[in-house]
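ok so I'm stuck.
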Amino acid sequence: MKIYSFPSNNAKDQLFAITRRVQSFNPEDQQSVADILEDIRTHGDTALLRYANRFDSPGLDLTTLQAAAQEFEAAERQVHPDFLKSLDRAASQIELFHRHQSPTSWIDTPRSGTLLGQIVNPVGAAGIYVPGGKSGKTPLVSTVLMCAIPAKIAGVSSIVMATPATPDGTINPHLLVAARRAGVDAVYKVGSAWAIAALAYGTQTIPRCDVIVGPGNIYVTIAKKMVAGTVGIDMVAGPSEILIIADKTSNPEYVAADLLSQAEHDPMASAILVTPFSEVAEQVLKSVYDQLPSLERQDIARQSLERYGAVFVVEDMPAAFELANAIAPEHLELHIASPLEHIGLIRNAGAVFMGSFTPEPVGDYIAGPNHVLPTAGTARFSSALSVDHFIKKTSLLHYSETAFRKEAPDILRLANIEGLGAHARSVAVRLKK
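replied:
not stuck anymore, here's the structure
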């Protein structure tokens, strides 16, 4: 990780490397996933169990494919009461935030004789994918909450979850407790691309879903990309990233710790500091390398920092925000005095964390806003996972005869210009006396 004066040729080269990094899908992986999707689509449960037995749990069968009621009950007894307390706080705050996103149907009469409007309805069924987390040893509880709660608030009537079983055919109890708390209706013990296929196409056991959300490995990502259009998906997620804007009021140790919190995710992750102050850049960089040896995942973090990390020293604060907007980071942290005074400068970011005591993990787990965020610059045109991902909007139109006759000439003119004679005829036939 180096310090660059921005703009400069070296800085632009590193910025190019960061912003053009992609999670590449080689042809072999894509073909493998395509074969799996077709296998599940054609053979349903038979193929699903074949993959689940081979890669996850050898003893799984149709009677144990879905987590049973007694498994949920046992899970409640297995988890610590303090976990239940933390889970409830996180779930309650996520619910509170996402309730503000609930859209409503509306009707308007903008012109005499016309009625226009929009009906808002939830999708019928949503599928939540939750990765295995080191064979159940690191259960991604926050993923369950962030994906299922917005679906529940949207009014989705069937919410199912797919997650790979451990080798003995069980699911980590923390995941089961979180699923029940978030309103998940059923949990299926399948993972990877075959789980995405089952959710997209349906099998004899797993119902077909209308929307699939949730993170996963490269095979899950490819599968979601391939089934998009058959079903809705949240996004094609890329490597994690953070960009921090800091001034002289920032704490270098805090800034360094936050950069490392994303660098440890993946060798493809990106951690960037932007500051107008050279002394801040030097202090933070020193703290990064002071803290790095103490990390359990230091090798991953080091690779990430060396390949896709950077400290950019810019002319002033407006230039810092201009650079941030160009990068469009997943996570944008503002370690600056009076961050609220600068939010008008932000155009492209997945989520913005303001102040020294709002590190990115606050948003990952408990604050309330969704942690499923656009990556790889896609914050230029997309948003965090929300209630909107689980609803659809239907337009309403009504014209009286008078209103129709008033606007018919314009409709005819536009239809004829486009060469659509039958469109024009459907209007003209109504103009006959």
